[in-house]
Amino acid sequence: MDRYVLQILTAVLLGISGMCLAKDITVYSGQPGETLNIICPYQKQTDRWKKKVWCKEDDVGFCQLLVSVHPYWSNFKRTNMSIDISDNYHKGILTINITNLQKSDAGVYQCRTVKFGDVNTLQRIRVQILEDQMNVNISELDNAQHIISGSQTEKEIPLMLVVIGCSLISFKLLLLGSIVIWWKRNESFYWTSTDHEPFSMPLSAGHSDAEYSLPNDREENNDYPQYINYLYIGHQNQAH
Fold first, then answer.
1. Do 34 and 100 have their domain in common?
2. Termini Cα distance of the chain
3. Strand, helix or coil for residue 161
4. Mind spelling out the 3-state secondary structure of 158-169?
5. Of 46, 123, 34, 42, whose CA–CA distance to 87 is shortest?
6. Amino acid 83: pLDDT
7. How many CB atoms lie within 10 A of CB 55?
8. What is the structure's pLDDT at 70?
């Protein structure tokens, strides 16, 4: 029972320590081909004469040694491939330079001090490799142009609807105005023709057109003397 409790406490402590390590990690980033300068400070009084180690964590969590330096060595700088490490024990600063960065250099590293098997982690560092800045700028520019063109297309749709609506309204107004003008013209012509139309009386029963045309004939023949008709009528009566 006590053993089981001890295992649980150990697992909890490991989890807490892992969370603390993950929280205290420092991030460095660079582009391919660049040189990354990493600084790990340490306590001069306690860690000054200790061996300094730069290692990289694997998937399991084991830190594989890459390069190390010792203050007792005549040269306080060591190089391994594209990585070099230098120890300035006067200031208590450990410096790591990674030249010609590659994508394979990305990962989590540790600065450590080692003395007689006693290992102390100074700092955990995450190295991130960024994409080429030119490609990033081009892709960002393309995305920006795409967004702008999309917004312009979205704005053009309501604008087209407004233009079409205004055109329809204008056409309707012009058509209505043309109808009103045509009606006004026809109305004035109708009243003008009606005012000048000659007056005609309807014919009554028992009367002929000759009776109603007589006054007109008389008016037309006003120049002739009317008593001739009376003389002619009197002459006919005497004959009978």
1. yes
2. 174
3. helix
4. HHHHHHHHHHHH
5. 42
6. 92
7. 19
8. 84
In a 3-state reduction of DSSP, which class is residue 145?
helix
Residue listed under structure tokens 């079409």: 164
**Count of all residues that appear for the chain in the document:** 240
Give the model's confidence band at 135: pLDDT under 50 very low, under 70 low, under 90 confident, else very high.
low
Tell how strand 83-88 and strand 118-129 pair up: unpaired
Same domain, 78 and 175: no
Q: Would you say the pTM of this structure is higher than 0.85? A: no
**Chain center to CA of 225:** 105
Q: Are strands 26-30 and 118-129 parallel, antiparallel or unpaired?
A: parallel
Write down which residue in 130, 156, 180 finishes a domain: 130
DSSP assigned state of 91: T
How far apart, in whole angstroms, are the C-alpha atoms of residue 124 and residue 56? 10
Same domain, 66 and 123: yes
The residue type at 210: A
Instruction: Decide if 40 contacts 94 (C-beta within 8 A).
Output: yes
pLDDT digits (tens, 9 = 90+) for 58-72: 988 899 999 999 877
Compute CA 178 distance to the chain's CA centroid, rounded to the nearest angstrom.
Answer: 45
Question: What does the alpha-carbon distance between residue 201 and residue 192 come to, in Å, rounded to a whole number?
Answer: 21
Per-residue pLDDT at 173: 79
